Amino acid sequence: EAGVTQFPSHSVIEKGQTVTLRCDPISGHDNLYWYRRVMGKEIKFLLHFVKESKQDESGMPNNRFLAERTGGTYSTLKVQPAELEDSGVYFCASSQWLAGSSYEQYFGPGTRLTVT
Amino acid sequence: EDQVTQSPEALRLQEGESSSLNCSYTVSGLRGLFWYRQDPGKGPEFLFTLYSAGEEKEKERLKATLTKKESFLHITAPKPEDSATYLCAVRANYGQNFVFGPGTRLSVLP
Question: CA-CA distance, B33 to B90, in Å (whole number)?
């Protein structure tokens, strides 16, 4: 079974430009999460989708970040315009709650974003 | 505010030298404590979920335990391939997202 995939693996852009990150969750997982780790800090929650609906976007830092999940499959996270402080590693995770199972989330390899 | 701390920040062990990593948490209603392993350049890899105080889980050389305030990840007779950053995360009653600790960087020397 394929795991969570993310694209690109690394992106270098200039301040003011736009970048779109993509996440493909594990097939059949309704829950999709975005997290971010900035330099030297712990991984922080950004938002949570259940299928195509945003369940919780309390971690989104500001309105320069826009996440979508059309059709409840893959998700994109757009940063527009990018600022220097947006640099970091963006992780996507997915999970599927089934009766009697646990709530573990499975993470992708991350996209390293560098804003110069 | 939910909070997770981990200690030590970094740990160097000789191959075969057992030790423990600590994860202390403050959360309003614990719905699960999760241990992950992360290798450089990769995403966190799931290891264990613990739900209630007194619970223990084991996998190969790793054993995770849980109390009402903290969790320990015990590593028995570690090997160099156990070198990684070990992350602890908690999930609270009110949401589905994780709150992560800063991690412990483990190095096991041959």
Answer: 4
Residue B8 is predicted with a pLDDT of: 97
Q: Which of A63, A53, A56, A58 is nearest to A86 (CA)?
A: A63
Does any CB of chain B come closer than 8 Å to the CB of residue A41? Answer: yes
- At A49, list the tokens: 């989708």
Nearest to B46 among A55, A104, A110 (CB): A104
Amino acid letter, residue A33: Y
Cα A75 from chain centre = 8
Tell me the percentage of chain A whose pLDDT exceeds 70. 95
Min mean pLDDT across A60-69, A78-87, B96-105 is at B96-105
Residue type, B21: L
Beta carbons of A103 and A97 less than 8 angstroms apart: yes
In angstroms and rounded to an integer, the radius of gyration of the C-alpha atoms of chain B is 13
Q: Tokens 């007779």 belong to which residue? A: B77
Q: Which of residues 65-84 of A touch B (CB under 8 A)?
A: none
Instruction: Kindly report the average pLDDT of chain B as a whole number.
Output: 94
Q: How far apart are CA B19 and CA B11, in angstroms?
A: 9
A105 touching B (Cβ < 8 Å): yes
Number of residues that this document lists for chain B: 110
The residue type of A48 is H
Q: Which amino acid is at A81?
A: P
